Automatic annotation (TrEMBL):
<feature type="transmembrane region" description="Helical">
    <location>
        <begin position="67"/>
        <end position="87"/>
    </location>
</feature>
<feature type="transmembrane region" description="Helical">
    <location>
        <begin position="29"/>
        <end position="47"/>
    </location>
</feature>
<keyword id="KW-0812">Transmembrane</keyword>
<keyword id="KW-0472">Membrane</keyword>
<keyword id="KW-1133">Transmembrane helix</keyword>
<protein>
    <recommendedName>
        <fullName>DUF4212 domain-containing protein</fullName>
    </recommendedName>
</protein>
Length: 108
């Protein structure tokens, strides 16, 4: 096998190993995610941009409902991101393994 193919095979192995050993972001930074979620939940309803009204105004000053909706929105966004990132990583890992297997098949 040529030197270029060997280097490509080593590169594929390294990429596969890196993807398999990548720590889960949510498990690694769970405290930061919770702190950011609490800050977003507390700040977002009362935040106003220039010439606009805050979010609590649109909820007729119903504070518990507004904070609950902001918190649930943050939780849903985190769940969607978690699922999306996991699916993307699995697809990339599968593609890299198939490419490595194909190179191993034609190795001679």
């Amino acid at each position: 096998m040529s030197d270029l193919k060997e280097r490509r095979l080593k590169s594929l192995d390294y990429q596969i190993q890196e993807l398999e050993n990548r720590p889960n972001y949510y498990k690694k930074y769970w405290l930061r995610i919770i702190v950011i979620g609490v800050l977003v939940t507390l700040i977002a309803p009362e935040y106003t941009a220039k010439n606009s009204k805050n979010l609590i105004y649109y909820f007729d000053y119903n504070y518990p409902l507004c904070y609950t909706i902001v918190a649930l929105s943050y939780i849903v966004l985190c769940a969607i991101m978690l699922l999306t990132f996991n699916i993307q990583d699995k697809k990339k890992l599968k593609k890299l393994k198939e490419e490595r297997d194909l190179m191993d098949l034609f190795r001679s």
